[in-house]
Specification:
The chain is mainly α and 271 residues long. 80% of the residues lie in helices and 0% in strands. It has a domain at 71-168: Receptor-associated Protein (Up-down Bundle). α2 packs antiparallel against α7, α6 packs antiparallel against α7 (152-201) and α8 packs antiparallel against α9 (253-270). The two termini are 41 Å apart.
Amino acid sequence: MSKIKEKEKKIAWIIPSLVGVAVLVTAYITLWNTPLFDEYLLLAVLIIIFPAAVLDYIDGRWKKSVDKHLPDLFRSIIQGRKAGMPLPQALEETSKRRYGPLTAELRKMVIQMSWGVPFERAFQFLGERVGTPLIRRVVPLVTEASRSGGRVEKVFAPTGKFIQTTLTMEKERHTQTRPYVAIVYVAFFVFLFTVIMLFKSLFVEVGDLPLLGSVVLTSGEARRLFFHMSVIQALFGGLVAGKMGAGTVSAGLKHSVILLASGYLFLKFLM
């Protein structure tokens, strides 16, 4: 698992968007006003958002792993300083241990310091490379303490406690918001169940009700209407679930993909 660069994220939007638009234009020219056009419309949407959803999921896992290992990293540096090691040596010894994705970034920092880069600047480079919101808050605290002439190890101890407290609070927040994410899924599947039952029990062919033919939907029109409604609810419901669960709309892309695929399969084979 590695960090996803911003350039890769942009590519994951641009190329699939071009492919999705091409699929949509082709379907519009050849299949417009047919039920098959709706399926190609859904395919275009999935082509556009699926790669970005995958990269966002991988990047989110990477950032969580980085933040999870930060308290252990600071604790190891403090132990090295208490053992009488200079800060560069303590960092070098710490870099020999495993801290998930942080290990490679820490080794880069040690190499930079061996080339004569000051600790403050090397630590800033580390923060820029990693780029998680938590480490962005930690970097200024440590660098300012170092520049002010204080003992850096004395800053690492409270900073490590701050990180641990922040991670605990974030975990509690995820636990508290998980039911709301579940509600989005439950609401969507209840909607699908209701739509399928309505379709099978209420909507009939116009020919079966000649006197009401002008006001009753045909089965094909009803099927397309419900399909469009399910796509809209799946797409935006997934984005809402991501915003509530992880705090970002992009985190909802994976929920949108799951709901869109589920909705299509349910309506395709059960309605």
